[in-house]
């Protein structure tokens, strides 16, 4: 094979994704590669009813047709735009997956308004508006439809008095910042100009799962093309492809497509996979919100777990001391909500939480949060500099003498004083399986009951896991995103 003809949409983002695909192909294929860009039905019909008029695949079907007419050897797609049921004439591979999360961009001049109008044409994202009140201090959210390429949408919002913000795929934003200047500098500068006029809220997958296969670039080619088969299979990311297909299979239960108000994302942690799903069952008309551990091995349940419940659990007193440091214009990670005065914490430029429970608690006080590690730990998807807009090392608000290694500079605002109550002590010596929410609690517990090291142990996937796994073999340490998940899987 001497030449490969590549077909793609003509939008700025599609050209970036095509550049990524061709760069991968060039690592294997040494012949010539020609590229042709065209508009899909979804590009020419910018009405909010495009999916209803043309069906699923408005951004992909017309290009796939060109492939089967031998006008091209392969087509580059956003995997999420492909119908969940594709022609048997085609085969697909998937490049490595980028961040699947959604980002809510809110105009800086609108961020404190009691009611926000968010631009989106996605039924899934419109459905999510009813849940944003748990995560943003604004009280009301409504939607207006919007279509257009990535820069056009930002421009429309900034120049409009009818819109306050817009949803975007984080993978799209990230690709523009990483490769956009190389593809089209003028378009990149326009995008950046508008982007910098927004506040950014990176939504947690546990509560806002994305469109199936969001963040994946797919390459479609003819099933008969055996020469391309060898080339493309060598650049396929089997793990990303498997994730995308799991999500698409889940979506296919309801017919599939962007017209459904269903989000589904499979996320990885420590060689395990967890499926987050949320939306409306089209058959029962009932709403669901699920998460399922796909690779969780069967665990023998026990009668007694530690903690038995969180209401009576107590291992430490937390004694606060004044937070003297000025947090203005800083990137802050808060691990707890207690002892943090709103007057100080709300001045942070960019504010994150370890999990969504803390996010909700902050939100109840009117403090705006920008992101969460969603229980996955501090190594989970680091935040890029163009969101934070600060080169200063981020600060982690934590307890005194926290020695656990971190990419954040520790800033203590309370100290831990051991203080076990009677119920916790009784529970500690009765339990057969243990869930540790902190390494400090684990260290204190094994001093009191050393044989815990030979029992069943579990924890979250963050710093607690990193420290405990130095003492307990990783294969003997179960991992859950929350105490509630641990209780579900391990308590009889």
What does this structure look like?
The protein is α/β, with parallel strands linked by helices and 492 residues long. The chain folds into four domains: 3-96 and 215-258, D-Maltodextrin-Binding Protein, domain 2 (3-Layer(aba) Sandwich), CATH 3.40.190; 102-202, D-Maltodextrin-Binding Protein, domain 2 (3-Layer(aba) Sandwich); 305-313 and 420-490, no CATH class; 316-418, 3-Layer(aba) Sandwich (Rossmann fold). The protein has 17 helices and 23 strands. The chain has helices spanning 12-26, 41-44, 50-54, 61-68, 123-128, 150-159, 170-183, 185-195, 226-233, 238-252, 342-345, 356-364, 385-388, 422-430, 439-448, 463-468, 483-490; strands at residues 3-9, 32-38, 74-78, 90-94, 102-107, 115-119, 140-144, 165-169, 198-202, 217-222, 262-269, 272-280, 287-293, 305-306, 316-320, 331-334, 350-353, 371-372, 395-399, 409-418, 433-436, 456-459, 477-479. The strands form five sheets. The chain has a six-stranded mixed beta sheet with strand order 15-20-19-16-17-18. It has a five-stranded mixed beta sheet with strand order 2-1-3-10-4, sandwiched between helices. Strand 12 and strand 13 form a beta hairpin. Helix 6 (150-159) runs parallel beside helix 8. The longest helix is centred in the first third of the chain and has 15 residues, at 12-26. The protein is globular and about 75 Å long. The chain starts with a strand and ends with a helix. Residues 50-55 have low confidence and may be disordered.
């Amino acid at each position: 094979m001497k030449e490969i003809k590549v077909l793609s949409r003509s939008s700025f983002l599609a050209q970036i994704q095509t550049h990524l695909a061709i760069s991968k192909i060039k690592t294997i294929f040494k012949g010539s590669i020609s590229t042709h860009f065209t508009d899909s039905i979804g590009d020419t019909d910018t009405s909010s009813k495009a999916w209803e008029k043309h069906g699923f695949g408005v951004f992909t079907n017309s290009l796939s047709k060109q492939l089967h007419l031998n006008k091209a050897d392969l087509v580059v797609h956003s995997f999420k735009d492909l119908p969940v049921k594709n022609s048997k004439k085609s085969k697909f591979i998937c490049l490595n997956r980028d961040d699947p999360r959604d980002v809510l961009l809110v105009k800086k001049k609108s961020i404190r308004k009691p009611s926000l109008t968010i631009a989106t044409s996605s039924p899934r994202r419109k459905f999510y508006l009813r849940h944003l009140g748990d995560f943003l201090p604004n009280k009301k959210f409504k939607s207006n439809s919007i279509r257009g390429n990535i820069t056009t949408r930002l421009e429309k919002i900034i120049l409009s008095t009818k819109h306050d913000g817009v949803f975007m795929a984080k993978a799209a934003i990230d690709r523009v910042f990483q490769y956009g200047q190389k593809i089209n500098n003028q378009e990149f500068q326009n995008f950046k100009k508008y982007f910098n006029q927004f506040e950014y809220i990176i939504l947690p997958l546990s509560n806002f799962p994305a469109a199936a296969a969001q963040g994946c670039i797919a390459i479609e080619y003819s099933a008969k093309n055996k020469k391309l088969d060898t080339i493309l299979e060598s650049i396929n990311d089997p793990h990303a492809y498997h994730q995308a297909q799991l999500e698409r299979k889940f979506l296919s239960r309801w017919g599939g497509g962007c017209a459904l108000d269903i989000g589904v994302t499979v996320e990885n942690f420590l060689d395990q996979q967890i499926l987050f799903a949320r939306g409306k069952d089209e058959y029962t008309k009932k709403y669901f919100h699920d998460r399922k551990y796909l690779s969780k091995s069967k665990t023998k349940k026990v009668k007694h777990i530690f903690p038995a419940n969180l209401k009576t659990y107590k291992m430490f007193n937390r004694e606060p001391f004044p937070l003297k440091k000025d947090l203005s214009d800083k990137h802050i990670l808060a691990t707890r909500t207690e002892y943090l005065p709103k007057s100080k914490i709300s001045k942070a430029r960019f504010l994150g939480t370890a999990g969504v429970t803390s996010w909700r608690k902050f939100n109840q006080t009117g403090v705006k949060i920008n992101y969460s590690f969603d229980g996955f730990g501090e190594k989970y998807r680091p935040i890029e500099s163009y969101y934070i807009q600060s080169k200063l090392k981020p600060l982690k608000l934590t307890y005194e003498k926290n020695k656990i290694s971190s990419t954040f500079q520790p800033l203590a605002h309370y100290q831990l004083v051991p203080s076990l109550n009677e119920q916790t002590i009784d529970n500690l010596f009765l339990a057969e399986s243990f869930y540790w929410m902190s390494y400090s609690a684990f260290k204190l517990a094994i001093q009191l009951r050393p044989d815990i090291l030979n029992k069943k142990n579990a924890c979250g996937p963050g710093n607690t896991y990193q420290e405990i796994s130095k003492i307990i073999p990783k294969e003997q340490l179960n991992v859950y995103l929350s105490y509630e998940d641990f209780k579900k899987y391990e308590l009889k």
